[in-house]
């Protein structure tokens, strides 16, 4: 039999497939025998094992039942889906959960950690309508964001510095009610003792040091991690020679942005102007 060699390091999908094949072979089952236990075809099993077909949540749960309980494959599926957001993002979230300082810069949309569930759902639904993601993945994306937000509500929360381009608060997302609630959430965020919220106005012009969103994390050992992304790729950087200049640029951005008081006043004016 010609058995395709698997490289689990080549992609999250390949890692899932290799794990499935290993678990099946450890029990001495053929693909046909696993198919009978999961109510999928042997062709489907083969396609998932070789990475030609992505697993679904239903498939992962069915596989867990076939192997005798537990949720190993469901957890592997969730890791795969979350990792598929953008390269490097899953690792970034691990650092985010233990950072002592978080610095964010966003363009066009409210930063995820500050989004209301309704605002996040509108963005996810829009991606579904464009065919970029499935309905199931949209629900996972919103749930995952809620988990990230909850992880910051700890006994000793991190300091969170947020600079938003003015486009973030002026771009209407989801209609007047959703946008009004989102702007109110921003004002509440700014009132916390461990947060600083600033708006970088349009007239900052060429003095804006970043053209893409940036995330900077200070870890308990004072090491700084940077994460930046484009439309299709994310990049996590832990090297000081390249990260520290980004931290300097962030401080320069804060100096050019509106003060928190002025930023909150601008947000309040927009909120009052929302029917």
What would you say this structure looks like, in words?
With 275 residues, the chain is α/β, with parallel strands linked by helices. It folds into two domains: 12-83, lambda repressor-like DNA-binding domains (434 Repressor (Amino-terminal Domain)), CATH 1.10.260; 89-114 and 154-272, Endonuclease Chain A (Endonuclease, Chain A, 2-Layer Sandwich). It has helices spanning 12-26, 31-38, 42-49, 57-66, 72-83, 89-96, 117-129, 135-151, 166-170, 176-190, 240-256, 260-272; strands at residues 101-106, 159-165, 195-200, 214-218, 224-229, 234-237. It has a six-stranded mixed beta sheet, sandwiched between helices. A hairpin with a 4-residue loop joins β5 and β6 (234-237). The longest helix is centred in the middle third of the chain and has 17 residues, at 135-151. It starts with 11 loop residues before the first helix and ends with a helix. The model has no long low-confidence stretch (mean pLDDT 87).
Secondary-structure topology with pairs:
Elements: H1 12-26, H2 31-38, H3 42-49, H4 57-66, H5 72-83, H6 89-96, E1 101-106, H7 117-129, H8 135-151, E2 159-165, H9 166-170, H10 176-190, E3 195-200, E4 214-218, E5 224-229, E6 234-237, H11 240-256, H12 260-272
Helix pairs in contact: 1-5, 2-3, 4-5, 7-8, 10-12
């Amino acid at each position: 039999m010609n058995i395709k060699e698997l490289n689990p390091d080549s992609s999250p999908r390949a890692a899932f497939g290799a794990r499935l094949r290993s678990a099946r072979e450890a029990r001495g089952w053929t693909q046909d025998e696993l198919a009978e236990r999961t109510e999928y075809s042997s062709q489907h099993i083969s396609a998932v094992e070789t990475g030609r077909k992505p697993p679904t949540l239903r498939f992962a749960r069915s596989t867990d039942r076939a192997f005798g309980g537990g949720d190993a494959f469901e957890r592997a599926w969730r890791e795969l889906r979350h990792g598929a957001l953008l390269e490097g993002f899953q690792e970034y979230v691990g650092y985010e959960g233990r950072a002592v300082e978080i610095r964010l810069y966003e363009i066009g949309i409210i930063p995820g950690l500050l989004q209301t569930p309704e605002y996040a759902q509108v963005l996810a639904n829009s991606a579904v309508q464009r065919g970029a993601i499935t309905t199931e993945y949209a629900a996972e994306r919103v749930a995952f964001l809620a988990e990230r937000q909850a992880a910051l509500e700890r006994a000793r929360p991190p300091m969170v510095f947020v600079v938003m381009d003015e486009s973030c608060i002026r771009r209407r997302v989801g209609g007047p009610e959703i946008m009004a609630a989102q702007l109110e959430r921003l004002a509440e965020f700014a009132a916390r003792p461990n947060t600083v919220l600033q708006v970088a106005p349009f007239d900052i012009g060429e003095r804006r040091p970043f053209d893409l969103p940036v995330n900077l994390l200070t870890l308990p050992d004072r090491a700084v991690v940077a994460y930046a992304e484009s439309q299709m790729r994310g990049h996590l950087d832990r090297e000081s020679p390249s990260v520290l200049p980004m931290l300097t640029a962030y401080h320069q951005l804060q100096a050019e942005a509106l003060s928190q008081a002025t930023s909150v006043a601008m947000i309040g004016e927009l909120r009052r102007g929302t029917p």
